[in-house]
Write a structure and sequence with these properties.
Helices cover 19% and strands 29% of the residues. A hairpin with a 5-residue loop joins β4 and β5.
Length: 79
């Protein structure tokens, strides 16, 4: 019984191993195909503040960032 369990554990160990995938190095100053393009991140508030006189004061909290990563490693954040 112990030999059977040991053999099963050994088989599971060998079957769960993965081979190392070859990766192509990216030259300095260039971005990978997965990172290229427009990226947006941010939050917005669903709470609005109004003054006692009925004037709109603003949101409670807002934060957002937008980037456009180009293949040559440069980016533009004026989207």
């Amino acid at each position: 019984m112990k030999k059977t369990i040991a053999c099963l554990m050994l088989a599971v160990t060998f079957l769960s191993c993965k081979t190392k995938e070859e990766t192509v190095p990216v030259p300095d100053g260039y971005v990978t195909a997965e990172a290229k393009g427009q990226w947006l991140y941010g939050t917005f508030s669903m709470t609005y503040f109004w003054g006692y006189d009925g004037s709109y004061i603003g949101n409670a909290f807002e934060l957002s960032v937008a980037f456009n990563f180009m293949e040559n490693g440069e980016y533009d954040n004026t989207l």
